[in-house]
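Repro:
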Amino acid sequence: MITPLPLMILMLAIMLVVPLGIHISFSAGLLTANQRIRHITWRLWICCSLPAVFATISMLLFYPENNETLAYRAASWVGGVSWFVFTLWMFVIGGASLWHFITTLVKNKTTQQTIPWERLPIASGWLLIAVGGLWFISLIVGKSPGDYDMRFTMLTALHFHFAGFALPILTGQLIHFSQTKKLAVTNVLIIMCPILLVSIPLVGIGIAYSPTIEVVASISLLTCCILTALCQIYCAGFIKSHGGWLLSISATALIASSIMAIIYSVGEYTGSQSLAIPIMIVSHGTLNSLGFSLLGLVGWTICPNKKTC
């Protein structure tokens, strides 16, 4: 069953979370300094996000009563394909950035170049958003891969727009800030980052194929989330603007949602479910989208100087 709240959160991702993440990725030169690529990205987002939002609104208003009408199906396919094409563009840029990071890492052994560790999570976020785009088009056109129901498809699309995109972007910005400030949490973030990035897709794989992988990946991911949140609160103390307060609230929301998710994952594995999916969508979903992702991205966006604030 498709409920309104997840679809509204998905629209929030398309209209606010993704563009704020793009802005942060570009503003401090964390992804690419190529102005032409930046201009193309923003123009593509404008052209592709509007049909995607229109298709989501159509689903919100007319699904399932009118999902077989020509107008509904046309809007669904145009919106779904448009957003998937945009996420594929992001995938290409993320892949190029990740390749740059890998070559720098290899050259570091001989040239002692500074390793841009913030590129790893940010490039990974731009790669993983394409997975979210694939599940988005599956949701909108009503053709879920395999035998998965629409609710699973919807939750997977949400997972890769928030945990798969917003979380790596905020982690990369956090590494960038802590490195510039030479803070003690820098090494913690750098060590934790690969574990976080591997855990994000493993959660989806575990949900689809193996409860054991799901619970191990979930606990790994959520432990990394709590550590990231604690580091974000620590870094927020060095920010004098209102952005520091938003980052602290954002981190608190992440800790709360992570604890709820750990309880849910353990309950699913043991069979003693204490938190049902509808409760998790309202609480965990809202805390992650409005609380952590949106406030965190806005916090860094209003920071006058994202290196030193």
